[in-house]
Design goal:
The complex is a heterodimer of chains A (257) and B (244). Chain A contains eight helices and nine strands. Chain A has 257 residues and is α/β, with parallel strands linked by helices. With 244 residues, chain B is an alpha/beta fold. Chain B has one domain: Metallo-dependent phosphatases (Purple Acid Phosphatase, chain A, domain 2, 4-Layer Sandwich), CATH 3.60.21. In chain B, strand 3 and strand 4 form a beta hairpin. The longest helix of chain B has 11 residues. The two termini of chain B are 33 Å apart. Classes of the chains: A alpha/beta (257), B alpha/beta (244). Strand 3 of chain A pairs antiparallel with strand 3 of chain B, so a sheet runs across the interface. Chain A: Pfam families: Metallophos_2 (PF12850). Chain A: Belongs to the metallophosphoesterase superfamily. YfcE family.
Chain lengths: 257, 244
């Protein structure tokens, strides 16, 4: 079974459209969206509508959670005063732009989706969250201490944990001791960002997860993870920011990834 | 948010197509299939491929899981009721073997957490029935054990919505999706469910969750004739016409 996972579109319609086009060429069996549909660009309603009309199961990101409740707090961890000032403009702009029906949709998104597999007398839970299982806006970076990552996953009962929020894709395999003395492998997967990548590559990114039904969590290869990057009209998305009341800094971020 | 739930298609392509025609007229935000795509009729491949092409998340029903079990025992006979499984091609058999057992949607509101748990039979087994008259304490025990506030089940082909009061004085919901392609409640029309959550949805007030059962017409005669013109037991055709 092939599952496509995408997130962090952030109102970037050209990137979302390019993603759907790329996806059409690949045979996937299911698609899930891990949140942050809105913020930082001019197409929040269009992005919501495109995802909704395809009936794609979606969870709430921190930005969706804020806008769904007309809050002026997106739960974003801005560090500098300049970032904070820019963030204020973005959330005010997004709150103004998002229409009632689209806001109601954001408000009723679930926090997590869990797929509970029972294959080959083994259980495997694939947990989809936006930030972490504990908080919608917790960042799980690649360099997080192994012990901490394992604890988060075990507490949440996740064999495979997929998340977004940092906009920096990675796949990390962690091994834990099994009850019968062997090893089990946990997978932590950050799926990157469709519309606001932050890993130096301005192309959009998403993940295709392939489950191997003949395998189990005792083998590393029970799942394979493919990071797909696709081109989109970055200039169009950056220009849209510059032609709007949004801070121009967000346009540069799109150009530089 | 409107969520469509359907199940128990049982290789009945005319019924599935009619369901999608009906569903396309309604604005739904997500669609889930609670399993049993195959068995009892001649279109298992077409049903799997139609659902797959729409990328709908699907659970494994007991009939879907049975295909792998039968296959492991050797060849699946081309006669009698196993003909329905014999028809399934290798690619689609592999698809059925990969399906998850349950899907869970975890909701968090300002002051409440509740889980929508989708299973085929019960939370424990894919071939256990959770019926409208299953003793309340058994259903509550199952829901507590699996941490489900809204339990969506299939398998019995008899749709219902039942509200139970939990020990914590919350209102819990059990919803049976009925059957798209093999109803057993005396009504031969296909059936699926629309679940609606709003900003006010809370387990403290049972009226804040909307559950609609949609019935739709389909060409029952075409589905019944297909059974009769195949090596399948002709009783399967009668069951479609009379919905038992």
């Amino acid at each position: 079974m092939k599952i496509a996972l995408f997130s962090d579109i952030h109102a970037n319609l050209p990137a979302l459209e390019a993603f759907f086009e790329d996806l059409e060429h690949r045979q996937v069996d299911a698609v899930y969206c891990l949140g942050d549909l809105v913020g930082y660009n001019i197409w929040p309603n269009e992005v919501i509508d495109e995802i909704r009309k395809r009936g794609i199961p979606t969870i709430a990101g921190n930005y969706d959670f804020g806008i769904g409740r007309s809050s002026d707090d997106c739960g974003c961890a801005y560090k500098t005063d300049e970032e904070k000032a820019m963030g204020k403009i973005s959330i005010a702009y997004t709150n103004e732009a998002v229409k009632d029906d689209q806001r109601a949709y954001l408000r009723t998104l679930p926090a997590h989706i869990r797929l509970e597999f029972q294959l080959n007398d083994d259980k495997m839970d694939v947990l989809l969250v936006h930030g972490s299982p504990r908080k919608v806006n917790e960042y799980l970076f690649e360099d997080r201490e192994e012990k901490s990552m394992i604890r988060i996953m075990e507490q949440a009962g996740a064999s495979v944990m997929c998340f977004g929020h940092t906009h920096k894709p990675y796949h990390r395999i962690l091994s834990v001791n099994d009850e019968d003395g062997g090893l089990r492998y946990l997978h932590a997967i950050n799926i990157g960002s469709i519309g606001k990548p932050k890993d130096g590559d301005p192309r959009g990114g998403y993940v295709i997860l392939t489950l191997n039904p003949d395998s189990s969590m005792r083998e590393k290869e029970s799942i394979t993870v493919e990071f797909v990057r696709f081109e989109y009209d970055v200039e169009k998305a950056a220009k849209a920011v510059e032609d709007s009341p949004l801070p121009n800094g967000y346009a540069d971020m799109l150009r530089n990834g | 948010m409107k969520i469509a739930l359907f199940s128990d298609i049982h290789a009945n392509l005319p019924a599935l197509e009619a369901m999608f025609t009906d569903l396309n007229k309604r604005q739904v935000d997500a669609i889930y299939c609670l399993g049993d795509l195959v068995g009892y009729n001649i279109w298992p491949n077409e049903v799997i491929e139609l659902i797959r092409s729409q990328k709908i998340p699907v659970l494994a029903g007991n009939h879907d899981a049975k295909v792998g079990v039968l296959e492991a025992k050797g060849a699946i006979e081309a006669l009698g009721k196993n003909y329905a499984y014999h028809l399934i091609n290798d690619v689609n058999r592999k698809y059925l073997r990969d399906l998850p057992a349950h899907i869970r949607l975890a909701y968090k509101t300002a002051d409440e957490k509740f889980d929508v748990l989708m299973v085929h039979g019960s939370t424990r087994r894919n071939d256990e029935y959770v019926l409208v008259d299953t003793p309340e304490e058994d259903v509550l025990a199952m829901m507590t054990e699996s941490n489900a506030s809204i339990l969506c089940v299939a398998h019995s082909h008899k749709p219902y919505h039942r509200v139970l009061k939990s020990a914590a004085a919350n209102y819990l919901h059990v919803i049976n999706t009925g059957s798209v392609g093999k109803p057993k409640d005396g009504n031969p029309q296909g059936c699926y469910v629309l679940l609606e959550l709003t900003a006010t949805t809370s387990m403290r007030d049972p009226e804040t969750l909307n559950v609609d059962f949609v019935r739709f017409d389909y060409d029952v005669q075409a589905a019944a004739n297909a059974v009769e013109n195949s090596p399948l037991p002709t009783e399967f055709a009668d069951m479609l016409r009379k919905a038992y």
